[in-house]
């Protein structure tokens, strides 16, 4: 996973609530067995017409937002399906940071696992950042994870909260499987607790 | 096991019993009892294991089945869509390489992962259950803590049999009283989502309680918990009771004999204690719930069948008003129109929400002696091969086929259209599935979520209508 430390980039405003993961990447594109290559079809229904031509009114088809690395939306971003293809599609498009008043739980979690920083900020602040974003190519936002601030084009800073463990993982670009495996002894000891004796094993031979 | 004297919820108890270790910042290493795997969200996880030379820690706690991509037509032929075929072949290769138990496509045990788990006794009360699928919440009906995870977490669970998580908040949704005739678990859940919204449960695990919930059979409880995610919750739960134990007893992978009795004793101890703290409480009166459908493109866009579609002009927030207009345009509806009477093109009875034997019986009760309306395509997709066989043993297939329904093989099918079962642009569907998002059942398809009985009523009348009027006629 790529580290996330500091990002200065174009932000795309999407003033919509409840953007679900089916919108971010429709189901017909989930047939891949890879993590990459989904960016072309991110937001496919809104981005392309039936003939595959770009719809000019969709924000990510417009300059400078086709180069956006930050996405700003309204509440409940990423609701619905748990598909990690949604953050994969955003990442493949170039998005490294998503900002919204609230997120669906699984999507929020999936972002961190892929080096995308999700930031919760009140709706009024999201509105201000969207206004910044609408100023065009020279109006970039800086997201500084080390200092936990967003720097607006006018120099004003906005502080944000992030879970310390997840911040550490992003700053270092760590994957957590290796970390958990360091607790192997505790996991094994848990598995041998007498209170767990009732939990049946599923053996291959019995599955028809 | 932590010794706690303060009253605890069902969620607290299952959580406490699965914490392997609590890390410094409060994140817990949580042990997972059952890991269910399907073909769409697992290939990248197995590939990750392969790249790092890791094995599956507990193949005997893992079960795989293909459901999203599978054709629901003749299974004797090869899968036509090359990408779907590749995804299923990749799953088969992975389960063979890593020694994971697997229900093959042509086995009668194959089906939708959230139907198969409970049906086989793989999912049991008191367990932690995960799957790379948001509708894993279904298994909470058994009184297990079950939630959907992303593919990175699938890899984490395969490698370590644990996940990293902080405890959720507790929400209790109580539905008290008795529902009227024609009102099902689906209507109850749509009413709950309509009340709290698709973000109402965010950060919470919902325990469903109250007399109307206790009265539900296991299929109904599964419908309810299934759509917890549509209320934004991490998981849904119903406390295990005698209905649960009667359901679990004798299932292929459930504990047997004395072990079963011991397990029941443990499961009985899991119910929320009197005075346990819930961060959020919501109460609904069962009598006030009537058969419902969705009108828009979010599961919270719920209407009682006698209701009218909202108008953007009634919404003070301009952003929300714009979203209502967008949903109306997408759905081809007029502000203020009655939802009943809206003509449908397709009826889909199936999905992990409503494809169990009880659901098919409820639909058949409406269909018996009637015929699918002219110009309507109506399909029944049982949740598993076993559901299909059981329904055929009761003659339900004949009821549906005689009425002009398609009777298909088990799979996710038109819930999300990853297989060839898809809406064409502009088609309107009464669907027993769980999501009415734009494009969910096919690009530009229009979805109205409802119960199997309501979907059956739409099939035979050709329009969204109140099933109670048809049932009255029959009586």
Shape of chain A: globular
Q: Segments of chain B where pLDDT lies below 50 for 5+ residues? A: none
Proportion of residues in extended strands of chain A: 5-15%
**Tally the helices of chain A: what do you get?**
8
% residues in beta strands of chain B: 15-25%
| Total count of strands of chain B | 19
The main pleated sheet of chain A reads as: 4 strands, antiparallel
Quaternary structure of the protein = heterodimer
- 3D shape of chain B: globular
Query: What's the total count of β strands of chain A?
Result: 8
- Alpha-carbon Rg of chain B, integer: 22 Å
What value does the average pLDDT of chain A take?
A: 95
- Class by SSE composition of chain A: alpha/beta
Task: Report the order of strands and helices of chain A.
Answer: EEHHEHEHEHEEEHHH
Protein described:
The complex is a heterodimer of chains A (208) and B (475). Chain A has 208 residues and is an alpha/beta fold. Helix content of chain A is 28%, strand content 14%. Chain A is built from eight helices and eight strands; from the N terminus they run ββααβαβαβαβββααα. In chain A, strands 1-6-7-8 form a four-stranded antiparallel beta sheet. In chain A, strands 2-3-4-5 form a four-stranded parallel beta sheet. Chain A starts with 5 loop residues before the first strand and ends in a 17-residue tail after the last helix. Chain B starts with 9 loop residues before the first helix and ends with a helix. The longest helix of chain B has 17 residues. The mean pLDDT of chain B is 96. Chain B is 33% helix and 16% strand. The radius of gyration of chain B is 22 Å and the shape is globular. In chain B, 61% of the residues are buried. By secondary structure, chain B is α/β, with parallel strands linked by helices. In chain B, the strands form five sheets. A five-stranded parallel beta sheet of chain B has the order 5-4-3-6-7.
């Amino acid at each position: 996973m790529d580290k996330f430390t500091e990002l200065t980039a174009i932000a795309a405003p999407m003033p919509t609530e409840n953007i679900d993961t089916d919108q971010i990447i429709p189901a017909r594109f989930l047939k891949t067995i890879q993590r990459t290559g989904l960016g072309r079809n991110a937001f496919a229904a809104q981005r392309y017409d039936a003939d595959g031509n770009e719809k000019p009114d969709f924000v990510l088809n417009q300059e400078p937002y086709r180069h956006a690395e930050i996405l700003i939306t309204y509440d409940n971003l990423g609701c619905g399906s748990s598909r990690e293809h949604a953050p994969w599609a955003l990442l493949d498009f170039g998005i490294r940071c998503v900002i919204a008043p609230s997120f669906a739980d699984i999507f929020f979690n999936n972002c961190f696992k892929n080096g995308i920083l999700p930031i919760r900020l009140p709706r009024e602040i999201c509105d201000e950042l969207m206004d910044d974003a609408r100023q065009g190519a020279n109006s970039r936002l800086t997201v500084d994870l080390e200092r936990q601030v967003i720097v607006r084009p006018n120099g004003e800073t906005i502080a944000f909260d992030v879970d310390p463990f997840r911040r550490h993982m992003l700053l270092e670009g760590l994957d957590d499987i290796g970390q958990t495996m360091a607790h192997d002894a505790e996991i094994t000891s848990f598995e041998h607790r007498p209170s767990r004796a009732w939990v049946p094993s599923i053996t291959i031979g019995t599955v028809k | 096991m932590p010794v706690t004297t303060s009253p605890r919820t069902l969620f607290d108890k299952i959580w406490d019993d699965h914490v392997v270790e609590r890390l410094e910042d409060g994140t817990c290493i949580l042990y997972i009892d059952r890991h269910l795997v399907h073909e769409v969200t697992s290939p990248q996880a197995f590939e990750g294991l392969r790249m790092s030379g890791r094995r599956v820690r507990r193949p005997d706690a893992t079960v795989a089945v293909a459901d999203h991509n599978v054709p629901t037509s003749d299974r004797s032929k090869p899968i036509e869509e090359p990408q779907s075929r590749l995804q299923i072949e990749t799953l088969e290769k992975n389960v063979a390489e890593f020694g994971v138990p697997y229900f093959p496509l042509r086995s009668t045990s194959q089906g939708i992962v959230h139907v198969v788990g409970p049906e086989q006794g793989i999912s049991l009360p008191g367990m932690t259950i995960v799957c790379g699928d948001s509708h894993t919440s279904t298994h909470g009906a058994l009184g297990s803590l079950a939630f959907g995870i992303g593919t990175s977490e699938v890899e984490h669970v395969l490698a370590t049999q644990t996940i990293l998580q902080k405890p959720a908040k507790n929400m209790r949704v109580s539905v008290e009283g008795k529902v009227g005739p024609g009102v099902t678990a689906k209507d109850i859940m749509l009413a709950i989502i309509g009340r709290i919204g698709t973000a109402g449960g965010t950060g919470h695990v919902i325990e469903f309680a109250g007399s109307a919930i206790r009265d539900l059979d296991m299929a109904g409880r599964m419908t309810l918990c299934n759509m917890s995610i549509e209320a934004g919750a991490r998981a849904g739960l119903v406390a295990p009771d005698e209905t649960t134990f009667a359901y679990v007893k004798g299932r292929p992978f459930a504990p047997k004999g004395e072990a079963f009795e011991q397990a029941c004793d443990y499961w009985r101890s899991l119910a929320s204690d009197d005075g346990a703290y819930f961060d959020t409480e919501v109460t609904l009166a069962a009598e006030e719930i009537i058969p419902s459908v969705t009108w828009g493109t979010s599961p919270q866009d719920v209407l009682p069948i006698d209701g009218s579609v909202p108008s953007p002009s009634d919404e003070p927030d301009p952003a929300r008003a714009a979203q209502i207009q967008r949903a109306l345009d997408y759905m081809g509806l007029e502000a203020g129109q009655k939802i009943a009477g809206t003509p449908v093109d397709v009826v889909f009875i199936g999905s992990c929400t409503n494809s169990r034997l009880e659901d098919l019986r409820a639909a058949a009760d409406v269909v018996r002696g009637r015929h699918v309306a002219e110009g309507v395509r109506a399909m029944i997709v049982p949740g598993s091969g076993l559901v299909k066989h059981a329904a055929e043993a009761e003659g339900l297939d004949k009821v549906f086929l005689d009425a002009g329904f398609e009777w298909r093989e088990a799979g996710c099918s038109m819930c999300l259209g990853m297989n060839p079962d898809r809406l064409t642009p502009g088609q309107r569907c009464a669907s027993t599935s769980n999501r009415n998002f734009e494009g969910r059942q096919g690009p530009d398809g229009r979805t109205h979520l409802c119960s199997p009985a309501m979907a059956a009523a739409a099939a035979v009348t050709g329009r969204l209508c109140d099933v109670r009027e048809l049932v009255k006629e029959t009586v």
